[in-house]
What we know:
Elements: H1 9-27, H2 51-67, H3 82-102, H4 104-122
Amino acid sequence: MGRRGGPRPGVRFLVLGLALPVLLYTAGCTGPDGSAPSPAPTTVAAQPTSAADLCTKLVGYWSRRMLAGDTYGDYQSMGLSHGQYQILMDVVAAGRSARQREGVDAARRLMARQARTACTARYRHGAPSGGPWT
Length: 134
């Protein structure tokens, strides 16, 4: 104790140093009108992409590029399996025919539908068992 009966000056600063963060924290726990704060937004865990969805995205991407004549490479350089590449070739062939008859937008819509249908069928029972490039 100090000379006047109160805590020593160092202790006062220690108490203030410990109390100030608590006061600031609790002051931020209410809204401006004294109400409870709104709860923090919840986050949704990202869902893993299914094999069929991944196939659809890859085939969709490369089919648009191929329709525009903006690609070159083999299926491995595109990140596709042999089976996915076969789907791509079928989708692009149909897209080219549709482009001649109905235009680019119709061809893209057709390719997107065909990619989704073929990839869903390919992965209906899980991934093919012939290895990663089948």
